[in-house]
## 1
Amino acid sequence: MSRATRLANAMPWRTRLFTAVYDRTGALDVEGLDLDQIRAARRRVAPLVPPVTWVTGAMPKGVRVTTSQLAARDGHCIPLRVYRPGHGTGPLPVVVFFHGGGWVLGNVRGYDALCGFLADAVEALVVSVDYRMAPEFVAPQAALDCVDALRWTRTGVAPLGGDPTRIAVSGDSAGGNLSAIVCQVVRDEGGPTISHQALLYPGVDGTQSFPSMRENAQAPILTKRQVDSFLATYTATSRLPLDHPLISPLWADDLSGLPPALVQTAQLDPLRDEGIAYAASLTAAGVAVRATTYVGVPHGFHSFPGVTLVGGQARAELVAELRAHLGVDATATSDG
């Protein structure tokens, strides 16, 4: 039995069926694509209607979606997608969200289900950032855009109904990478204060130093070959080495003084061990951390909770941590 078969067999049947269909689409394959093909892939968004919502979850009733924008340090206009819950009074806490896609693919509309869920369940204003991606913009441009988005919250969220004193960052995969980098840069450069960082199966080690990159090289959803392609595209003409903290936040010299963190990882993910290592390094540096590895799921499981056994649990943990650290309800508790 091949390793890929063993990995697939470790998943519940409905997860196995979904990932088999998804992998046939080649949705995360960028190797060999030209720029027009990459841009076309970025624009693809599944409609939030059944049966798609049986997999992704639906947009909660009452959540209002609007658009906004901010000016980056070079004057570029960065689009924002903003989610406001239909309940909650007064200025709302803010979750600044960075989408995944290997710094090459993905778009803010593709995260409507997850961001809408967070807005409703956390009772927060969720601001999803349409940062610039490779190959047009290589490292560290995505990270700089996300830092600029965080700085924008000082004045930008209040007119949208957000509270600039209660800010969290979150993101999945490459978005988790960008969330971790933002926390480090903002700490070093004087704010604004970030109350919490929620990192969902983050990629934090561009050097690929950990065993799960080899153990799960042929995993469903995300393979080592795809990780290689994303990194190669993102760093193609960059002058930064792969272990630079603006690419690999795990290798920063100092992790002390960073915001409390939730780090969620997936058992069947090439990125699993680097996420676990980042959580351990944060803890060693005195940062309050809650770290959970979810069994029987591959990379990306927050985007398809309806076909896993742990999607609801992972989302409940994410919401509880954000609510606790953003001061939404005094009864929420954290293990951090």
Note: Strands lie at 64-71, 77-84, 92-98, 125-129, 162-172, 196-200, 261-268, 289-298.
## 2
Amino acid sequence: MAVVALLAFALGAYWFLGRGDDVPPVETVVEAPPEIVPPPAPIEPEPEPVEIQTLDESDVFVRDLVAALSAHPGLAAWLVSDGIIRRVVVVVDNIADGTNPAQHVTFMRPETRFSAFGEGAYLSIDPQNYARYNLHAQIIDSIDTQGTAELYRMLQPLLTEAYVELGNPDRPFIGTLERAIVSLLNVPIVESQATLVEHAPFFHYNDERLETLSPAQKQFLGMGPDNVRTIQARLRQVALAIGISDSRLP
């Protein structure tokens, strides 16, 4: 617009000074370009509010939400049981206290039994045991981290309600969840074959460091180094995504 105005002024001066007083100056009319009006920004539709079901009626609701976190077909088999929220809270509480939660997740039990080889003081874990948990690690590793964090925040009221039912009216569930995650992250990665002592009906570790682990930690350790490493990595990501400080994690 400034350039157009200057050109108009120059042309007007030329006609006024160069043609004489008897010739009226030619008036140059400069039309301003039409104002370009930007199109209105598209209106983003507001997300529809998600109606949280009651704790007793939440299973179908929770199944649908959890199923959306992973495309792995094996995840659906973990969601067939009833009382999902209550079961999750009990399992987390068991792990936080060091108790093996196996009785609450029987659907995750491997199809083959644990086996060891050797005799006497030379018993060792059969490495083929670890393959029994490959599917577990694959399913957990397939779950979307950010989606899990968002789902946790959405379901916090139901988790809190179930935790109060469990007898914890004054303790926040997030503290117990943090203790459970830290407990599993503290399980060591054992690359070498761990030696065992037969102690019916179970086995004990010869390594005192391993034997002093909690029952929940020993169960996790028995998944094998590769599976433990995979699950610990995903656990750490989820812990950070739900707001647990990195400084509080091992």
Note: The chain has nine helices and four strands.
## 3
Amino acid sequence: MEKAVGRDTDGRLFLMIWTNHDQHDRHKFTQSFYEIDLEEYTAFLDRGIEQGEVKPEERERLIEKAKAPFIPPWDPHKAVVVYQDEGYTLGQQADRPYLIANGEKYLLSCHPYEPCLYITSEGDFQTAVHNAFDPSAVLASFYSGDTVASITGFEYDAKDFCRMVEYAADMGNLNIDDAEKVFGNRPKKKIAEKKPRNEKPPQRNGNPPRVEEGRIIEDERVSAILSEYPDIVVDYCIVKTEHIAKGRNAHWYALVCACRKLLIDDDGEAVWRCDLGGAEGKPIDTAALLAAASEKRGANYRGAFLYPPHGGRYSNKAFDRVNAALFPNGTDGLEAYEWTTDWSEYFDEGHEWWGALCLTVYDKTLDRFVVIMASATD
């Protein structure tokens, strides 16, 4: 027999009891529900403390939570006003977040793999705020009484969010820190300090946070081969295709996913800040992708692999072996883009001397991307 307390959709407290009739068959059970009041709930907590099922220090918090006004679960499809004052109305209607700011209505949206907040005015003019928010997640947080924080460290309540959106609307294209100029010199929360290059987040021997769950592919064969070359400074990330865009935009989405893995540490803090909205890419052919090492060794892919600034020097045979694992069906089905490297602190050290590169390679035969990045100094 198992017991628990929960709320109904109208906020009433219920004691739920499950009775298992066959320990070998989880489908054979009965359930009973009994409405209880606050006094009975308190007694239930005290018994749980005596039996070691509830921590004593949790008692008062749980009682206060039971006393608090009931907030129904967030429904992403329900029309609701999350915040309203004399100037702003922030809410959701027909599955679409919106803001009415001093009489002007804006529809809010984003792309699931693109860190942009889109603000569309009634005249269909669209503004993109890079490295910003998913408005549906923001509304859900405000609905529950929580705040949200931007990538720059600003903590927002609902009115702050309304002010930022109103300020950014009709600007066309800007980054989140530009939109936050509306707050003046208001202090930010502390942002993690940049870590030394030799403290990069683990890639092959650790467990980096899986920000894009299901999109990052862990290829054991590739990992095993890369582990044989411990001195390489090239970072790899294999990304599953979602077919949400084509051409340059599809490559950009793959780069976003890879950066969320490669540029974030185990605590979820940014190791190197970036503005992916500033990344510019151009297509290159396979010959350019696998070209001979350039004089500035880290400025192209082969040079970055063969000539790390410290440690061993690898052969073209080793380079070919790694790429045979990454692209086992050959190079005929590859589509590659080369990206600028002025949009992240990750590349700063390579700009000093050795070189920096960023590539995305789509393998049509495997329907996946390989993101290749490198930057180092002496």
Note: Residues 141 and 289 are 44 Å apart (CA to CA).
## 4
Amino acid sequence: MRSSTLFERMSLQLGQLTDIELLRLHSTVLDELRARGAVRTRNNPIADYAEALVCKALSLRRAEKESKGHDAAGPDGTRYEIKSRRENPDRKATLSSPIRDLEGEHFDQLIIVLFAEDYTVKKAVELPRSAVDQIGRFVKHVNGWVIPLRENVWCNPHARDITLLLQSCQE
């Protein structure tokens, strides 16, 4: 009974937290669960959060789950693919998740968001679809294009820096 009451009190308090505060709490909880051996990975909700944040910041409409190859659309019909990565001290992964069927032309713009470990936006850019061929590479074993998250992404001449725009939506 006691833990049920504690959970109810915590639930009421959680409702008062912002999205970013809840995500930071999630990160802390995962760390503790991992230290206890209850979980083996740091899987996180970063992809969904990135999509929601980008849609809010750019006034986009999220695509239906069954939409192939894009995550959002603008009022003018522009299709956006959104890729994100959260920094992780245990893994130095610097690649985007794969973009499948790039040849299918399923999106017009690519948005890449790099989150710090505490879920704050560190860097974010919008790139035209044509830039993916220049900055990405096809990886056969994942059957998709991946993008190394290096300076050629953040400083690409075709990139539009949207970092501040996304950061302002986190506050």
Note: The mean pLDDT is 88.
